[in-house]
Amino acid sequence: MNKIFLVCALFLTFSFANTLDDIRKAGVVRIGVATGWAPFSKQNEDGSFEGFEILFAKELANSIFEGSSGKVEFVGMSVAQRIGALEQNKVDMVIWGFTMTPERRAVIDFSTPYFSMNLAVLTKKGDKVTNLSDIRDKKIAAVKGGVPEEYFSNKGYNMVSCAAEKDCYRMLKEGKVDAYADDNLIVFIYPLIDEEVEVNIKSVGSTYFFGIGVQKGNDSLRKFLDQNLIRLSKDGFFKKAYAETFEPFYKGTVDRKYFLLDDLYSFL
Fold first, then answer.
1. What is the per-residue pLDDT for 13?
2. CA distances (Å), 102 to each of 149, 170, 192, 217, 260, in order?
3. How confident is the model at residue 62 (pLDDT cuts 50, 70, 90)?
4. Mapping DSSP to helix (H, G, I), strand (E, B) and coil, where does residue 44 land?
5. Signal peptide location in the record (predicted)?
6. Which fold has domain 119-207?
């Protein structure tokens, strides 16, 4: 009886994914994206989306429908909602700064990576933090469920969870934490708009990669994404999209060579 209940419960929380053919027949592809993570993706007041990952998603949608009348439906979501949205077939894919970790690979599948990142730490200038030893016994904020929280927790740091990036920054400013750890491109934003904070710890741990998340076993869609991701790279799409989104956002202070993977794709 308990086994039957468990099987039923699993079916209630898991729905089979739409294959590539299913998506084409339906004429719509549903893509999970961030709502407030410029310049990757942000939702405007009129409900529309813009950013690097939005341009990327639109190009993939055009490839899926091969120039026909299909459309893309953007579904805004939080970090914590991404895996559940795939498992419950609420979206067909997630393009949302989705770091490819072994734990996530166990429950979903990823495309070939399209972006590389490192962790970095934001602190107040007055605290004169220059290396990790300076914050070993301090409170560090990180977005709940993300790679920074996992990394620093595993290293034994005193972590404080926050719901979103702006909440982590606010906690630092209000003195509730001593540092804020996140992807380097995220923390690099704050010194541009706030002269009282800085990023002296610019690279922590190993480089990690963003991939497109799809439901486990949706091989037709994953393989299609892999093929078109490499095609877009060779066509110069990522350089162009970076120039349109990241360069104006960061005022030319962030070099694309540290983040784009075009050099790796040249071997494929």
1. 54
2. 16, 31, 34, 16, 22
3. very high
4. coil
5. 1-19
6. D-Maltodextrin-Binding Protein; domain 2 (3.40.190)
Sheet holding 28-33, edge to edge: 71-76, 28-33, 93-94, 213-215, 108-110
Predicted confidence (pLDDT) at residue 10 exceeds the cutoff of 60: no
Backbone angles phi, psi at 31, to 5 degrees: -125, 120
Q: Where along the chain do the CATH 3.40.190.10 domains lie?
A: 2-114+211-261, 119-207
Query: Residue type for 255, please?
Result: D
Q: How far apart are CA 182 and CA 123, in angstroms?
A: 12
CATH superfamily of 2-114+211-261: Periplasmic binding protein-like II (3.40.190.10)
Run of H or E including 224: helix 219-234
Instruction: Kindly report, residue by residue over 105-159, the tens digit of the pLDDT.
Output: 999 999 999 999 999 999 999 999 999 999 999 999 999 988 899 999 999 999 9
